[in-house]
Amino acid sequence: MIWMIIDRSEKVEQYVDEHNQWDVNKLQISLPSSAVSLVLEINPPNATLGADVPAWSSSDDNHFSTRSAYLAVRKITESRTRSVWDAIWKGKIQYRHKFLLWRLCHDSLPTRSKTAVWSNACSVCPLCDTRRESNLHLFRDCIKASRCSLGLEDRAVNDPEFTYPKEPHLTILQYAKIQLSAWSLDGGLTQPRVPSLVSAWSKPEVGWIKVNTDGAVRRDSKLAGCGGIIRDHNGAWVKGFTLKIGLSNALTAELRSIAEGLSLAWDLGYRRVILENDSQVAINCCSGGPNSVNLCPLVASRVKELITRRWSVQLKHIYCPSNKCADILAKSSLASTDRLVILDRMPDIVKFAIDREALGGCPPRDLGG
Predict the structure, then answer these.
(1) Does pLDDT of 366 surpass 50?
(2) CA 227, CA 239: separation in Å to the nearest integer?
């Protein structure tokens, strides 16, 4: 075991260098390597962003909501893909049917197998009197219940040649497959999507430079990073950067990319700048548009301070296919060992994308997706 002497008079800001990044050499002197790795995953204190404020880590915008608290308590990872709960609550059916399906999926219907746990009631199904009345038995396995749900009783009365199926649950599954093939999950007819072309990356006018930035976040570890590229009116490489942020969310990563891109352009002496980013929410936060209130106020205020300096800055939203170079740099920051890297030369990983965008090329994008 290694015992380390800690000077309690030292402050965290003493371990931050002049570039507002962790001073790894000082950290390695004072802390073991395992602790240094954990510290590097945390954003260092930055005086330019103002005083620290409380943040709710279980939401994308760092603000508390009942929805985010519910997902955190239930340990549910919110997915961008359509879930079964969306299919239930957004389906075009009566509310009582939605509530029934919701309780069925949560296994919370008061079946006899449930009530028998806290009462003296019998758990056997009263219809068939063969098995315990569970959710699965009630809606699938019970012969008499399935006859009613499929309307087989009416057919038996009106059609003398009708015979009950030996396995009613297979008939239920067959009906469900037929309905699924005819209708989409949202309750409407499935409409084919027609791919559309979005506008390609365009060169700025003479005398202007264009900054493209993007953020990236690992879904598993929540480690975030960002990157950006500066190009002149010919579409040629001027400068680039990658920044390993640490534990953060997608919106903060996008805003940090905008702040770093503008700061780098200012330091290089450019005074007419067009900045493009593929996050409409981040652009709104910086330009005072919708969703700009209380979303990542520290980083957004830093961007607004940069914009209000004595120079011309235009913020524009673009689609992801037109922001490929910045996307590549942002993702590369997640694997970088250095926190902030200023790229004087063009990396090989973006050369093909830069050449394609300079010629006006852009892959097709499905606007409906």
Answers:
(1) no
(2) 11
Question: Rounded CA gap, 261 and 214, in Å?
Answer: 10
What is the mean pLDDT of the segment spanning 9-20? 80
User: Could you tell me which residues are beta bridge partners of residue 274?
Assistant: 210, 314
| 340-343 and 312-317 strand pairing | unpaired
Question: Tokens 């019970």 correspond to what residue?
Answer: 142
Query: Would you state the structure tokens that stand for residue 163, as one six-digit string?
Result: 């015979």
Distance between CA atoms of 197 and 358, rounded to whole angstroms? Answer: 17
What whole-number distance in Å separates Cα of residue 69 and Cα of residue 143? Answer: 42
Higher per-residue pLDDT: 91 or 150: 91
Most confident of 65-69, 114-118, 259-263, 351-355: 259-263
Q: Domain locations in the chain?
A: 16-45, 84-182, 209-358
Choose which CATH entry (3.40.640.10, 3.30.830.10, 3.30.420.10, 1.10.1040.10) describes domain 209-358: 3.30.420.10
